[in-house]
Amino acid sequence: MTNADARDVKLRLVEVTVEEIADRGWGGVRMRRVAARAGLDNGLVHCHFGSMDRLRYHAARHAISTTVTEADRALLAGPSPGAGIVAFCRVLTDLGSYDAAKVALMEAPVHAPRLSELCEVLTSMMERFPVTSREQLEAAVQSGRLPPATNAEGLAVMLAALLDGLSLHHWLQPEVDYATAAGALAALLDDDMER
Question: What pTM does this model have?
């Protein structure tokens, strides 16, 4: 097997594991079922990952990279914090009511305290957003788009918590159009910035 083939096999196993987590829950994933669903030999799962914890860890990282990265990009690419929040919510809405990566991502934090590597990945993800958004908010303060007394660091932490909550609510109530609902908050934030 070439290195490229090995990467393809590993990615396929990770993608199937994300689907298994979404379908059966974190504890319901079985190496044999993952191998069968991927159409591969069970030995390849053991060869590439060695344990269920490693397999689920890689699945969670994959879910983070496919779901959170896209939403982060949308959020941070917005011309203003309000527009970024609307874009973030639109990404969530576009994922639809059921997305295996989103479900796996929601399962991961529950298990992170017992898996130090997963805890580190999730912590890094949670720390990345406030730092990047704080930088954006500080730039808005310096340019006069936000009042000089704005606590950019505190606001960034609150925005991160708000977005975490919106993500959870979208998962539980996918029928709600959060992008439109976020427009009210965006108008408030952006109106404040223009004063």
Answer: 0.73
